[in-house]
């Protein structure tokens, strides 16, 4: 399912405008962009925002007398000039000829390409190996690396059908990566503990 269009792209990630106002993909979710034939670049959603498209201009409060219909932006596309929803993505891998690579793709995804939500099957296949977690820890952005990684682990755990074995393996990998930083490690472990 198409969820957005790339409006800014770099070697390490991209910014996309969401198809629906106020509905960026979930923080930490795995998304993909077709980069040629059956090849895809994969990334993890690291931030979302809804704001005015004009730099420095804020949205204004609605009148309390207004009745606000959530679908008004679909029915009146000209209102998208007033507000839009964007999300940032950190690139974590790519697929070429059916082989999954968990490192930065050789080229950033092209501008204006469509962004798609990954299916649970794609999430399961991509997350079998955990090498890409290193890219998530090294990413800088609006959300701290600890909260970003924890959100990704929770979302992937959910997409994998609450796979306890995968969650345990992932927790051990995170512990290995953060073995010299107890505070950061505990922040993530507390955040990924199943309810």
Mean pLDDT: 90
Q: Could you give the order of strands across the largest sheet?
A: 1-2-5-4-3-7
**Residue windows where pLDDT falls under 50 for at least 5 positions:** none
- Overall number of domains: 1
Strand content: 25-35%
Question: What key phrases describe this protein's structure?
Answer:
195 residues; alpha+beta; globular
Describe this structure in words.
The chain is 29% helix and 28% strand. A hairpin with a 2-residue loop joins strand 5 (84-96) and strand 6. Strands 1-2-5-4-3-7 form a 6-stranded antiparallel β-barrel. The protein is globular, with a radius of gyration of 18 Å. The model has no long low-confidence stretch (mean pLDDT 90). The protein has 195 residues and is α+β, with helices and mostly antiparallel strands. Helix 4 runs parallel beside helix 6 and helix 5 (164-177) runs antiparallel to helix 6. It has 6 helices and 7 strands; from the N terminus they run E-E-E-E-H-E-E-E-H-H-H-H-H. It has helices at 72-75, 120-126, 133-138, 145-159, 164-177, 182-192; strands spanning 2-9, 13-18, 30-36, 39-51, 84-96, 99-101, 114-117. It has one domain (2-192).
């Amino acid at each position: 399912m198409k969820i957005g269009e790339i409006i800014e792209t770099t070697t390490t990630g991209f910014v996309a405008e969401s198809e629906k106002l106020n509905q960026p993909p979930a923080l930490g979710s795995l998304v993909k962009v077709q980069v040629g034939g059956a090849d895809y670049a994969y990334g993890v959603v690291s931030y979302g925002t809804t704001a005015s498209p004009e730099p420095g201009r804020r949205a204004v409060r609605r009148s309390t007398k207004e009745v606000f219909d959530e679908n008004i932006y679909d029915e009146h596309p000209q209102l998208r000039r007033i507000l839009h929803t964007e999300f940032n993505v950190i690139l974590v891998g790519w697929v070429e000829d059916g082989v999954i690579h968990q490192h930065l793709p050789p080229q950033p995804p092209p501008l204006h390409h469509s962004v798609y939500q990954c299916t649970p099957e794609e999430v399961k296949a991509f997350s079998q190996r955990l090498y890409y977690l290193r890219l998530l820890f090294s990413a800088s952005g609006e959300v701290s690396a600890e909260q970003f990684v924890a959100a990704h682990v929770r979302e992937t755990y959910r997409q994998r059908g609450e796979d306890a074995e995968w969650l345990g393996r992932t927790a051990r990998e995170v512990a290995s990566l953060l073995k010299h930083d107890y505070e950061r490690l505990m922040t993530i472990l507390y955040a990924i503990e199943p309810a």
